[in-house]
Fold this protein.
Amino acid sequence: MKPPAFDYSRPETLEEAVGLLAELSSGGKVLAGGQSLLPILSMRLAAPEHLVDINRIAELDTISAGPDGVRLGALARHAAVERDPAVRSTQPLIPAALRQVAHPTIRNRGTTLGSIVHADPSGEMPAVLALLGGSVTAVSARGRRTISAAEFFLGPLESALGPDEIAVEAYFPALAVRSGTAFAEVSRRHGDYAVCGVAALVSVDQERRITSARAGYLSIASTPLVLDLTEAVLGRRCADDLSAAGRLARQLVEPDADIHASADYRRDLAGVLSDRVITEAARAAAGSGPGD
Ligand SMILES: Cc1cc2nc3c(=O)[nH]c(=O)nc-3n(C[C@H](O)[C@H](O)[C@H](O)COP(=O)(O)OP(=O)(O)OC[C@H]3O[C@@H](n4cnc5c(N)ncnc54)[C@H](O)[C@@H]3O)c2cc1C
């Protein structure tokens, strides 16, 4: 199928783009990498009057990583973020998750911020942003605001962004000392959306005992789900049996069934993958940073 007819603008500046969206009211739609929006239009699941293509706005094509974290502009493509050495050393969970997003051709064009704004509960990067406690900064004719990940994801394909707002930056906190991360997912074919995916963030103390263990889930709830699994593994070392984390996750998740998997299968996957990533993240935490 072909998309319904729409008007199209390709502004060169953020100011121009924001002005256009303000004029269009709710009839405008931002076009970034087009890897989600164009399939949606082609399937006639949406029919915006006007697409505002942001690809010529050079100031949005930024990737920066420093002691406080990683900041991605709206035109930072998945592939560029995945390959950036400073991003990898500042927050290794980002490239680990991006490697599971679709296929290389889609990652070459799709933007990481677009994926967050798209708010697909099966998307890897919304879950990563939620687990890390990151945020999204948006700009409109009304001004600029920063929305925490906890407040950003409202439902399937629904974010807190207004129709007149452009998301200009995603912020991911840096990995703290004596902390580690890991990511794992199961999909029917490599590159497909995951049947279930889990990201983990574990911290240990100077004796390498776990002080905090949290996990972020995709394809499990209508928005990215973050669970605190600390009580199951508190005080344990990475070499200990950490399977209590998976047992707790199994109790806490409430997945739905769909054509890809039953609710029970998804619950089991959430448990198995939680075990795996919490153990891997605990090992990474124990092997990282000062504290000897
Ligand atoms: C075959 C296939 C497989 C895929 N598999 C996966 C997968 O496994 N995991 C995964 O996470 N994704 C997957 N994707 C989606 C891909 O990651 C997209 O790149 C991403 O979801 C959207 O980014 P985009 O830049 O292409 O956004 P677009 O498609 O341009 O836009 C998506 C939505 O976000 C809005 N938007 C985008 N950027 C902004 C902005 N800066 N400000 C305001 N609104 C904005 C658009 O208006 C639109 O509503 C897949 C896509 C395809 C085609």
Notes: The chain has a mean pLDDT of 96. The CA atoms of residues 28 and 253 lie 37 Å apart. The two ends are 61 Å apart (CA to CA).
